[in-house]
Amino acid sequence: MTEVASPAPVDAPMSKRPGLPQRALVLAVTTGCFYLLYLRLDAAAAREGMTLVPYMQQVFRGVAWAPWLALMVAYSGFYFLVDTRVTTSVLNWFVDQNIRYRDILPIRASAYIISLLSEQVGKGAMALYLNRRDGVPAWEVASVMLFIMFGEVFYLMVWAVVGFFLGGSALPDVFGWIPWIGLGGAVVLTLWMLYFNGTILPDNRIRNQRIFHAFRHARPWHYAAFFLVRSPALIGAAVVYTIALRLFGVDASLLTLFPFLPVIFFAATVPTPMRAVAVTLWVVLFPDNAGQMAAFGFVQHNFFVLFNALLGLVFLRRARREMFGT
Known about the structure:
Blueprint: H1 20-47, H2 52-61, H3 65-94, H4 101-115, H5 119-134, H6 138-167, H7 178-196, H8 213-217, H9 220-247, H10 254-257, H11 260-267, H12 276-285, H13 290-324
Helix pairs in contact: 1-2, 1-12, 3-4, 3-6, 3-9, 3-13, 4-5, 4-13, 5-6, 5-13, 6-7, 6-9, 6-11, 11-12, 12-13
């Protein structure tokens, strides 16, 4: 790297409190999701000649909990290792230091605890950690985190297109938009790269902002490498979620499920309590098994974030020692 700049202050604010309109929007989305879930589940219970509470109790009693728990513990650990590899790789691409995988493990895990409240604050904690321990400018790490979030969108988009062509006629009609969305995403990504390498609007100075450090240095192979390094997590999820659905009593096939996962995982990033959008999508996409899908979505997503937070507790002492020397 040839760019030189003074580090940002360690005590620079990492995030801002969401404004009233944003909080109102989150509340509205959450309320809408829960209302839709109630309508779908109440209708499913009525078809079985039951009221809602006994219907859901019956669904939960039918789950093979022990093998499901073992499966999810194994997958959560696998995801953590892949997630840490992604973070380490991107940091080494765009930060002028040799950052080791094992040194990222404690802060990546510890950030999961903070991410229970806010994914953005969790990423801010990683910036603070690397600033205190290695002297990495906080703005450089923030730029890397922005690249990761940007890359996630296109990574999920590519897999959604792949899943569409694998799933074909088994998918709902609305999924016919996926190839067009993928084509639009490809155009946007191409224009994005051309802008940040100076081919488009060469005199525009916005690209020179510190927060775009990673994008200025990114080349096409960085985006391709990000996709390849990140993909084992989604491929593993497709296999694990297919098995897990069967443990919930839903006969799902890998090819049928695969196109849904990128869409549902993207919905899981929406900041609503209990990832209400993602849980609702499971019910909407599998309407014939409304009760099982509601239970599956609720348990699956919340177990994942809570178990990752437990992993964070394992590494918390080391992360705190390296940050504060205590």
